[in-house]
Design brief:
Blueprint lengths: L1 H18 L25 E8 L2 E3 L2 E4 L3 E9 L5 E10 L5 E11 L2 E9 L19 E10 L5 E11 L2 E3 L5 E3 L2 E12 L3 E12 L13 E15 L3 E12 L4 E9 L2
Antiparallel strand pairs: 1-4, 1-16, 2-3, 4-5, 5-6, 6-7, 7-8, 8-9, 9-12, 10-11, 12-13, 13-14, 14-15, 15-16
Length: 262
């Protein structure tokens, strides 16, 4: 088990090391944070709406149905602090999610804490129930670094509380502390489109093979992301992304298409 975990970490490091020698300048669009001052106070509050043909998250197919994703957030003037609410809803009603998050950003570093509440499979879930025996929540802590000289981003996330659990040899329900490590790299960056590659793997800190992302440790997200700005009637710009993702652990793949309406 420990050998598998070490294998994932080493492979991700090797992969990112190979990416770093390239000559060309991440729900799943590779994001780069601009920390410039925001002059207009009205711009401190943001509301964004996406429409997707499905919802991919760290290589998992959260829903295969078309869905909407809304993000309401506040970002401080210097870009250091961000807090918001994120919600998703499937067109067929089978998927519902309501999250809270905070994020801190400074000189390429970012630290985010997400309270993720996908209660699609929890019809009797209570919004403030955090008991690991019954909760629909899980708390995900993500540390990331965006390199300044090369378009490489690394992130490590650990689920620290909630429904990421396993039963130990004594029959007790324990936190699995599942981890997900990802490296993404922009291989082509043109004026109105870009192409990125990503690789992510998952494992648990507990002495078990299964984790939140699959029944065994391994690569859960190998992908290609194509971003493009569509010019509509020479008046509007519509950002669109297409993400092709392969999940070797789950043995499936999919293409997510997302339209950022505003």
């Amino acid at each position: 088990m420990n050998n598998i975990k070490n294998y994932i970490v080493v492979l991700v490091v090797l992969l990112t090391g190979n990416f770093a020698f390239s000559q060309v300048s991440d729900e799943n669009i590779v994001q780069q944070r601009n920390e410039n001052e925001v002059e207009d106070n009205a711009k401190l509050f943001h509301f964004n709406l996406q429409i997707k043909n499905m919802h991919l998250w760290k290589g998992l197919h959260v829903t295969d149905a078309p869905m909407t994703a809304a993000d309401l957030n506040y970002t401080s003037k210097n870009g250091f602090f961000k807090a918001g609410l994120w919600g998703g809803r499937g067109f067929n009603g089978d998927y519902t999610e309501f999250d809270y998050y905070v994020q801190f950003m400074h000189k390429g570093w970012s630290l985010a804490i997400w309270d993720i509440n996908n209660y699609s499979d929890y019809p009797d879930a209570k919004i403030f129930d955090y008991d690991r025996n019954s909760t629909s929540h899980f708390i995900d802590v993500i540390l990331g670094y965006q390199f300044q000289q090369i378009p490489l981003k690394l992130s490590w996330s650990t689920i620290v509380q909630g429904r990421d659990t396993y039963i130990n040899d004594n029959g007790s329900l324990k936190n699995a502390y599942s981890n997900y490590i990802e490296a993404s790299y922009v291989v082509l960056d043109e004026s109105d489109w870009s192409l990125s590659l990503l690789a992510g793997g998952a494992f648990s800190f507990a002495d078990v093979d299964a984790n939140f992302y699959g029944d065994e440790a391994g690569f859960t997200n190998l992908g290609v992301i194509y971003n493009r700005d569509l010019n509509i009637f020479d008046k509007y710009t519509l950002p669109v992304s297409a993400t092709a993702s392969w999940n070797p652990v789950k043995d499936y793949g999919a293409i997510q298409v997302a339209f950022n309406l505003f």
